[in-house]
Amino acid sequence: MHNQILVVEDDRIVASDIQQQLTRLGYNVISTPRSGTEALESIRNSLPDLVLMDVRLKGRMDGIETARCIQEIGQVPIVYLTAYADVETIRRASATEPYGYLIKPYDELQLRTVIEMALHKHAAERRLRESERRFSATLASIGDAVISTDPNGQIEFINSAAESITGWMSKEAVGRHLSEVFKLDEAHGADLPKAGVCHESRSVRAVLSRRDGNSCEIEHLQSPILDDRKRTIGTVVVFRDVSWRLEVEEMLRRTRDDLARVARLTTMGELVGSIAHEINQPLMALMTNGETCLHYLEQASLEEQREVSLRLLNEAKKAALRTVNNGQRAAQILKSVHALSRRSPPALERVDLNEALLEVLALIQGEMKRQDVVLRVKLESVAGEVLGDRVQLQQVMMNLVVNSIEAMEHVTNRPRLMQVETKLHNDSEMVVTVSDTGEGVPEQNIEQIFEPLFTTKSNGLGLGLAISRSILDAHSGRLSVLKGDPHGSIFQFALPLRRGENRT
Amino acid sequence: MTPDLIEADLSVLVVEDDDDVREALGHLLASVGIKVETYASVPDFMAAAEPAKAGCLVLDIRLPGRSGLALQQDLHSAGITVPVIFLTGVGDVATAVRAMKSGACDFMTKPLQPQEFIEAVQRAMDQSVEAQRVSARQADLEQRYSTLSNREKQVLPLVASGLVNKRVALIIGVTEATVKLHRGNLMRKMGAGSIADLVRMNDQLRPSLDRLNLDHGRGFARRRSN
Question: Does the pTM exceed 0.90?
């Protein structure tokens, strides 16, 4: 492809001469306008690859003025042809950033050299501009916010994502110091050095103060900008808005709590029969004792001997006292049920593990009876208090105990024995153990049983152990399972004791 | 409202594992003058109770370890026929039916109505007393029967089946006068006031006769073949 050259020269002979030279050199001369006006017209029609411009042109515009006008139309390399170069002319000419000068007289070699150099330089610059444009477009379109600064921390560039997060428009931000625009809340542990140059390898969470005063949770990462010789020539800060992420984390936490509660309620629902039985017992005792009391009162009212009637009244009183106790026992069961089904955010309180365990065992008495399970309880004599959410810890206990009972459902050739134990360990933690003589856990499933939705029961949800483990994790405890000897399983969890209260 | 007091000094044996319920039942029965012994489990019961001498048993169907049902079946196999009342939780109907089929006297679902419970116990006790009376009477009969001579033992069923003295004499091969004598003696020994009494006694004795009198049947058969 031949390069298109425009020759602007008012001297016809010179113009013709140049044209011939150029043609010989293999260039294509579009035309040879004699004035600035003509030149501009030609350029408006089609942009040449290069313009050879006589500095002196007759007419309203001289070569330099014309060149300036050409720059406004498009990026065309301009080479000046000049007979002599005075300081003033050169100064004016330089302002138009020409790609070269040809000083008359010049020979063909010079002509070719200057033109070639100009064309190459122009091509290189075009590639560079192209590259810049591409990077610029990339920066503008990435979701992350980017701010770059010079070595002193003055902002050189800020992309649109950064504009929207910080609230600063590019026009206003460029030139300001980074700390003005990228303001981190001191209270949240910001340590952005004022120099603006920092080396970090991981994103850091921080709170940004936007221009309008509002805060925004972000993650940011700073890196130095290095030149070819690895010298630092600025800083680039990349950051993103993570407040939505925090909202999601909070929602996840709440969903986990809800799920735990649902699992708890489901278990409670399955235990309704057992719970009803538990309440039935004290109610029956209460009615019976009431009737007994009435009998004695009736007899006392008919009795004439004072001694005998006093004895009868005493029996009546004892019966009445028994009814009060029976009522309290029923009330306690209901209290436990209510506590386990209430919805409330997890609370941290002092929990006596022995007490909590006994409450849970009371609720499943009926179920144990129905399944012919014998219970053996061994409690640590020293009261061990842990810090945690009582309801959730009881949920874990209930889960393990119900699992044990279910594991022994099909056992017929040996006693169905469930053993529950609490023990102090190393003076620093309480260990709760629930063991059974059931079917046991097959070797290959030992780790799987803690995964969500894993179950070997036909009507199980498979969530109990997963939730139990996550509850214990949140309490800095751990849950483990061992094979029972010779049958069944031993589930165990340990919780750290409340500090400063290891013994009563 | 005042319940009848039972005079018999038979005891009620209660086996119930829930402490409150057991205590309440014990006091309830005591308040109407019934003797009661309470046990918390089957092993406790086996160790100390004398079920054969009891008026009735009250058992919770589900007890830790050995169930109430199993205990009743054990007693049944051992020939102890004390009436048993089962206490069952709501929803245990299938088990209750099984209990009744295996010879229980009654079953009640918890929570019990105290008055109904007392009435059930009284019925069971009455049944016991009656059974005792029947058994005592039978023992008496058997004892009297054993005092009869062989001849008298021969005459008894014949007279009881309505045959006249003359006929009996012919069958046995003795005189009418002898028959009359035997008849008088055996009626005296048996304590029968009339032929009707004798007929009843004979019926009551018949199931035990094989046991009491091994060669009676053989002798009679020989005679009939003549």
Answer: no
